[in-house]
Specification:
By secondary structure, this protein is an alpha/beta fold. It has 17 helices and 13 strands. The protein has three domains: 13-135, 2-Layer Sandwich (Gyrase A, domain 2), CATH 3.30.1360.120; 142-220 and 400-448, Up-down Bundle (Four Helix Bundle (Hemerythrin (Met), subunit A)), CATH 1.20.120.430; 228-389, Rossmann fold (3-Layer(aba) Sandwich). It binds guanosine-5'-triphosphate (GTP) and magnesium ion.
């Protein structure tokens, strides 16, 4: 792997504010690299100066300006000696008051030290990866954990951080390495082939130890994608059926304006929700109808645009009024999309026959609700969850789920493994089979970061925030 030209990867000491911008109880500056200790010694005056900083011990004192001697902030500071640190390098953390101005001033002093500069986004984690403390799936998990939108998303990331995916990939990798070793012996000693090489047994092992686990992992990718990225849900319907009331009801707050006047909502309103662990971006839209009014017209155009991006439509109908011609027009607009029919205002029509709605828009699930009383909202949440997960349920708790990058590599590895199997059936020469086996191994290597190219690495670490 080629390291960045400047500053030299191993020599530069990097520093960044690790806590989010703004005021907070405390703010933390993180420093990593060979200068860490010198920086602490020169900028930090402990209240009770020790002979030597003990590693991983917190000291109370002050950060002082190296030239003027003025106190910049009272802090707690810790020196952590390599390699038992986040980056496997010498690390210093300074815990100051959560004032961004003060933190920036301390940081400005730190980067005046020789071979010391500001860290790039994700650079601490990148060093942890390049220094072999974590593999690439674990580095990705760090970014994912910070951005997780639901509890389920966070626990998926923690599992991956703890090596969940790494472990499963390594198991398959080890199996392939063992198979390759058998093949290589057979290639090198063709005369003894009969004794050491049983194609049938090899094929069985390939199936059980590589093809099946690869397929199993791949099958979990979709569930993982839903937990990570969530789905986009658009609320659609003619004016006054209760779309904004539904949005408020799902959010459990009065977010959108609700009135009895048709055409109340003019713009699209977007909010985020957690529906049984699925991150949902929900969008309320202007009621769709023929109109002569310019602003409403724009709102309707926006509503139609949002349709295109939606993973799921909630088509809202007024149960009190029954099906109208305009509702049927909307069925055409929604055609080809995943739809849940929401029959609202059932408080006004308690003995409603839902089958009529199901017949009118065949195939779509129908849920009866009252956005005013909240009745049926749980059923609606269940229906959204069902539609999002395809009835499969979410990721089993604790199981590793590949992301899109992993899934692409897994697919390639699976194809290569399948090719080895077919080659065995066709009695192809062993050296040809070994080539496909090697290809499968290198695709797995991409996932954990053994063979990943620099541009892929840059792309992954660019996703991080500063100080991580
Ligand atoms: N009885 C009853 N009234 C409801 C229910 N949901 C909404 N309403 C009433 O229906 C009217 C319209 O509600 P909105 O939520 O503004 O409807 P909308 O679909 O967003 O309307 P536009 O934004 O104009 O397209 C208001 O007077 C609501 O109080 C319900 O479940 N039961
Ligand atoms: Mg509205």
């Amino acid at each position: 792997m080629v390291m960045p030209d400047f500053p030299d990867f191993n020599e530069a000491t990097i520093a960044a504010i690790a806590t989010p911008p703004g005021a907070g109880g405390i703010g933390i500056i993180r420093v990593s690299g060979p200068q860490s200790h010198a920086i602490l010694q020169q900028l930090f005056q402990p209240k009770k100066p020790p002979k030597k900083f003990i590693s991983h011990k917190l000291y109370f004192g002050a950060i002082v300006h190296p030239k003027t001697g003025a106190v910049i902030d009272e802090v707690l500071a810790v020196y952590m000696r390599a390699p038992q640190t986040y980056t496997r390098e010498d690390v210093v953390e300074i815990h100051g008051h959560g004032s961004y101005l003060l933190l920036q001033e301390i940081l400005a002093q730190i980067v005046t030290f020789p071979d010391t500069r500001l860290a790039e986004p994700g650079e601490f984690t990148k060093r942890a990866f390049l220094n072999g403390r974590i593999d690439l799936t674990q580095a990705e998990a760090v970014a994912e954990l910070l951005g997780a939108k639901t509890k389920e998303g966070a626990s998926l990331a923690v599992n991956q951080l703890r090596g969940g995916l790494h472990g499963e990939i390594w198991k398959i990798r080890d199996a392939l390495v063992a198979l390759r070793a058998i093949m290589e012996v057979a290639i090198d000693f063709p005369d003894e082939e009969v004794e050491i090489f049983d194609v049938h047994e090899l094929k069985t092992r390939l199936e059980r130890e590589a093809r099946e686990p690869l397929a199993l992992l791949l099958a979990r990718a979709d569930g993982g994608k839903i937990i990570r990225d969530g789905i986009s849900v658009v609320i659609l319907g003619r004016p006054n059926v209760g779309k904004s009331s539904l949005l408020n009801c799902l959010l459990r707050e009065e977010r959108a304006i609700v009135t009895e006047i048709p055409g109340t909502t003019r713009d699209t309103i977007e909010e985020c929700l957690d529906i049984k662990g699925v991150p949902v971006r929900i969008i309320d839209t202007a009621g769709i109808r023929e109109t002569v009014e310019a602003v409403e017209e724009i709102g309707i155009r926006r509503a139609r645009q949002k349709l295109g991006e939606a993973d799921l439509l909630l088509l809202v109908l007024d149960g009190g009024e029954g099906l109208q011609a305009e509702d049927r027009t909307l069925f055409e607009v929604a055609a080809g999309k995943k739809v849940v029919l929401v029959v609202n205002k059932i408080d006004k029509a308690p003995s409603l026959d839902l089958s009529r709605y199901a017949d009118a828009f065949s195939g779509a699930p129908v849920v009866a609700i009252s956005a005013t009383t909240g009745e049926g909202i749980r059923d609606l949440e269940d229906a959204v969850y069902e539609a999002a997960t395809g009835g499969q349920g979410l990721q089993e708790v604790g199981a590793a789920a590949p992301n899109v990058r992993h899934a692409t590599a897994l697919q390639r590895a699976l194809a290569a493994v399948q090719q080895v199997g077919e080659g065995m059936d066709a009695n192809l020469p062993l050296d040809l089979l070994a080539i496909d086996l090697q290809a499968a191994l290198s695709f797995l290597g991409d996932i954990i970061g053994e063979t990943t190219t620099d541009d892929v690495l840059d792309m992954i670490f660019a996703e991080f925030c500063l100080g991580k």
